[in-house]
Amino acid sequence: MKAIPPSPGHLPATPGLSRASAASRLLQLRGISKRFEQPLDISGRLANLLGAGNRASVVHALDGVDLDVTAGEVIGVVGESGCGKSTLGRIVAGISPPSAGELHYEGRPVAGMSGAERRAYELGVQMIFQNPMASLNPRMRVLDIIGEAPVVHGLVPAAGKADYVAGLMQQVGLDPDYGRRYPHQFSGGQRQRIGIARALALKPRLIVCDEAVAALDVSIQAQVLNLFAELRRAHGLTYLFISHNLGVVGHLSDRVVIMYLGRVVESAPVDVVFSRPNHPYTQALLAELPTLDAERRDYRPIQGELPSPLSPPPGCSFHPRCPHAMPRCAQEIPMLALLAPGHASACHLNDAPTHRSPAGCAGADRTAANESTDPHRIHPPK
């Protein structure tokens, strides 16, 4: 599949999504879109000669994503499978180029970088993948998996590789004596720690964590999340933490970005997302989080299936599943709008608060009232 330019009409850049000054922004994304095309095969082209009318398949992975990442913060990116989270992470890490839009690193456009600037970006942004076993070379020992890149890039002399790798393994909670082992000789949690050490080896400023704990047991998840927090404090790291689990994101993140079908629908500090969610999709995700409340709960999943990125719905992409949808929602794409400092949401209901059901959390007045009177309000995990 090859990337093709997107059709016009993606969301424009929305200033003010981050409270950080321009000088402190490590990464900026403006209008990032990614689309993939599957060209017609020979049989499809032959059928078109007979009037079949076949068309190339186009996957709309991302559509006009705007995001500011401040040095030292942790941004959680949350959404259902297929919403474009991993594609966004791969574009940030430089693995995949965007079809449209601009990516800036330390204030400079990545597309125009060359030489030393490009090298600084590629080393400064690293990625930890979801499947630790698939991301590690089964034919290499851990010593080489972690130590090869820093030696190749001149960060460490070849003679000092063993000591450098031993120090990294200790930081991530692995015995340095395991450096002579192969990936298959480790547990899932240990393999993920190897992946973390490999990312740290290049001394990055930003690490993209793509579902980094999704494949691990719950107890191991907690250990790895605590490790991420410790490494952040020790190295001043910035994380783009991608997950489908709001509960996991709440433990680590400073700010949460909610994505749906390739678009950002809400962005806010983590405490605001858990206490005053604005977008109906965010509210639906939070409603299904398990709690320790002893009362009986009726879990009601979001109705319907995530629309296909091959044929996204017109207007607001969430309107086929939204209980508050209006005719306008099927016709017009909602723009991200600031509701409060650092809190942005893309929902037409913010322009028509009378259409919000009593169970919603739209207007600021109703939100403030709910926050002070609702005893069952969800709080971010500690």
Describe, in plain words, how this protein is organized in 3D.
Helix content is 29%, strand content 20%. The protein is α/β, with parallel strands linked by helices and 382 residues long. An 8-stranded mixed beta sheet has the order 7-8-9-4-10-11-13-12, with helices on both faces. Strands 1, 2, 3, 5 and 6 form a 5-stranded antiparallel beta sheet that branches. A hairpin with a 2-residue loop joins strand 5 (100-105) and strand 6 (108-109). Helix 4 packs across helix 5, helix 4 packs parallel to helix 6 (188-200) and helix 5 (161-171) packs across helix 6. 39% of the residues are buried. Residues 1-19 and 355-379 have low confidence and may be disordered.
